[in-house]
Specification:
The chain is an alpha/beta fold and about 500 residues long. The chain has 2 domains: about 300 residues, Alkaline Phosphatase, subunit A, CATH 3.40.720.10; about 160 residues, no CATH class. About 35% of the residues lie in helices and about 15% in strands. It contains 15 helices and 12 strands. An 8-stranded mixed β-sheet has the order 4-3-5-1-6-7-2-8, sandwiched between helices. A 4-stranded antiparallel β-sheet has the order 9-10-11-12, covered by helices on one side. A hairpin with a 3-residue loop joins strand 10 and strand 11. The chain is globular. InterPro entries: Alkaline_phosphatase_core_sf, Sulfatase, Sulfatase_CS, Sulfatase_N. This is Sulfatase. Keywords: Calcium, Hydrolase, Membrane, Metal-binding, Transmembrane, Transmembrane helix.
């Protein structure tokens, strides 16, 4: 076939037209690798988010090379439900993982599409380093697994995560891959040092508690200092991991996503639907796509990670996913028709912490719905009542509570025995101290958020929209506070059948 004469006008535009067509097709056959980095129990207490005590240079550099989301949230601020949400792209009441996997909570169906099964269909090699903590684990058929335990004692050093990642990268040299690396920091226990890291740990005199905690005592400052030491160790691990990726030569064709799985384990944090529990760091680095150093303030959720990754892989998302593709937010400029609301939820995650709450927030206001008002919030008790069987060391002891302000005292009382609704103006009151739900000046805002929450529950077929389902769930949970079920191999929570039936009947 003779060469085309590009000096002729027609031939020139023929080549241009075909070149334009070739570019996207070449991109489609060479989609990026996907590296999902997940840390435990930490909100946006990082240097790149403006935290004054954080020692996180590697995560700060990752944010400088990618896009940092200022307002990112998880739908549920406890480990198993949060992880099921970003792995399946569905809310807890949609996938079924509404409590901890270690307490027999599970997804409704093993065949629920997820990161692993969907990307494997596209030819991706899939890997997991660190814990999964979602039931059934067989629903996530990773090709590669390493360091499968939680590693909360940090016997496996952060170097081990990078070493195992290097092992995975060698196996994946000839195909696209998806790797999720799950670090144990900053989960309790807050270890000051582990394997000599960090080399220069912070002490109680160096820090103050996060402003949403509302308690500041020497005892709690020590916990806070070691929380930041955990974050410093996490940052070292992320740096080692990203260096290992760089050494493969594949970094320029790798979409890197970093999140915390939920907020820190301090009062009104982990387990709650307050901002301290639901707000997390989210950083996306995608060379050639994500604009370096960009900060987006739109409301983002971890249910957005799967649609974003499927788009990157050249795939369509399942139609029933509530999340959004984040790609339009990875460059400067307005995003068309972006979401107005962010959803949050908790059941308490296991019987001794049982309490049901929903939340919905927009850019300014936050509604919390408590379907069983005036009843005891066992989650709050685990932070505020030393007689609680699972009282956490980072909670507020009786001695700590003698030092708190009247404002904090009122907030703790409201958290312990919630009213039907709570409403907060996050612009004026970002740490949710002043409940406006009974203020007539905010009645219209309150009703708008109630209506929006109800609409979302109906659209996503939330079983907890029905009062009878709420009562049945709570009754069964409270009847099992002895936790004998943990030793019963065939034990199965009834909601796995009744809620699935309720959802399918709608």
């Amino acid at each position: 076939m003779p060469w085309l004469d590009i000096t002729s006008k027609g031939s020139f535009w023929f080549l241009v037209f075909n070149f334009v067509l070739i570019i996207p097709s070449a991109y489609a056959i060479n989609p990026p690798n996907i590296l999902l980095i997940v840390s435990e129990d930490n909100g946006p207490e990082l240097g790149c988010y403006g935290d004054p005590y954080a020692q996180t240079p590697h995560l700060d550099q990752l944010a400088a090379e990618g896009v940092r989301f200022e307002n990112a949230f998880v739908p549920y601020s406890v480990c198993s439900p949060s992880r099921a949400c970003f792995l399946t792209g569905k809310y807890p009441h949609q996938n079924g993982q509404i409590g901890l996997a270690t307490h027999k909570f599970a997804m409704y169906q093993k065949k629920t599409p997820n990161f692993v099964t969907l990307l494997k269909q596209q030819g991706y090699l899939t890997g997991l380093i660190g814990k999964l903590h979602v039931n059934p684990e067989s629903a996530f058929p990773f090709d590669y697994r390493a360091i499968p335990g939680a590693n909360f004692n940090r016997r496996q050093p952060v170097t081990a995560y990078a070493d195992k990642a290097g092992e995975f990268f060698k196996q994946a040299q000839k195909q696209q891959w998806f790797l999720s690396v799950n670090f144990p920091d900053a989960h309790l226990p807050f270890l000051k040092q582990a394997n000599g890291r960090p080399a220069q740990p912070l002490s109680a005199d160096d820090v103050k508690p996060m402003p949403w905690v509302g308690v500041d005592t020497p005892r709690l400052r020590e916990q806070v200092a070691n929380y930041y030491n955990c974050l410093a160790r996490l940052d070292i691990g992320v740096g080692l991991l990203l260096e290992k990726l760089k050494q493969t030569g594949a970094a320029e064709n790798t979409l890197v996503i970093y999140i915390g799985d939920h907020g820190a384990q301090f009062p009104r944090g982990k387990g709650s639907v307050y901002e301290g529990g639901l707000r997390v760091p989210l950083i996306v680095r995608w060379p050639g796509v994500a604009e370096p150093g960009l900060v987006r303030t739109e409301l983002a959720s971890t249910v957005d990670l799967l649609p974003t990754s499927l788009t990157a892989a050249g795939m369509s998302s399942p139609q029933d996913l509530p999340g959004r593709d984040l790609k339009p937010l990875l460059t400067a400029g307005p995003a068309k028709d972006w979401r107005e609301y962010i959803f949050g939820f908790t059941t308490g995650s296991f019987p001794r912490n049982c309490y049901i709450q929903h939340s919905l927030r927009d850019a300014r206001y936050k509604l919390i719905s408590n379907p069983r008002p005036g009843t005891e919030n066992l989650i709050a008790d685990s932070y505020l009542d030393e007689s609680h069987p699972h009282f956490v060391i980072s909670g507020a002891t009786a001695a700590d509570q003698k030092t708190i302000s009247p404002r904090t005292k009122a907030a703790f009382a409201r958290w312990s025995t919630p009213p039907r609704y709570e409403l907060y103006d996050l612009q004026q009151d970002p740490y949710e101290w002043n409940n406006l739900a009974d203020d007539p000046d905010y009645a219209e805002t309150k009703q708008r958020l109630i209506d929006a929450l109800t609409a979302l529950q109906r659209q996503t077929r939330d079983p907890f929209l029905a009062p009878e389902n709420v009562e049945a769930f709570v009754k069964e949970q409270l009847a099992h506070r002895d936790m004998r079920y943990r030793k019963q191999k065939q034990f199965r929570w009834s909601y796995l059948d009744t809620f699935a039936d309720w959802r399918s009947a709608r």
